Amino acid sequence: MKNNNPLSPHIQIYSWHISSLVSISHRVTGIINIIIVTLICLWVALLLFGNTNYDLIQKFFETFFGKFFIVGTVWSFSFQVLSEIRHLFWDLGYGFEIKTSNISGLMVIFGSIVLTILILMRNIIL
Amino acid sequence: MVQINLPKNSEIQKGKYYQDKTGSKNIRKVNIYRWDPSSGENPRIDTYEVDMDNCPSKVLDLLNKIKNEIDPSIAYRRSCAHGVCGSCAMNMDGKNGLACTKPHKEIKGDINIYPLPHLKVQKDLIGDLSTLYKQYQSVEPWLKISKKDENKENLQSIEDRSKLDGLYECIMCACCSTSCPSYWWNGDKYLGPAVLLQAYRWIIDSRDEDRKERLKKVADELKLYRCHTIMNCTNACPKGLNPAKAIASIKKMLATG
Question: Is residue A89 less than 8 Å (CB to CB) from chain B?
Answer without folding.
Answer: no
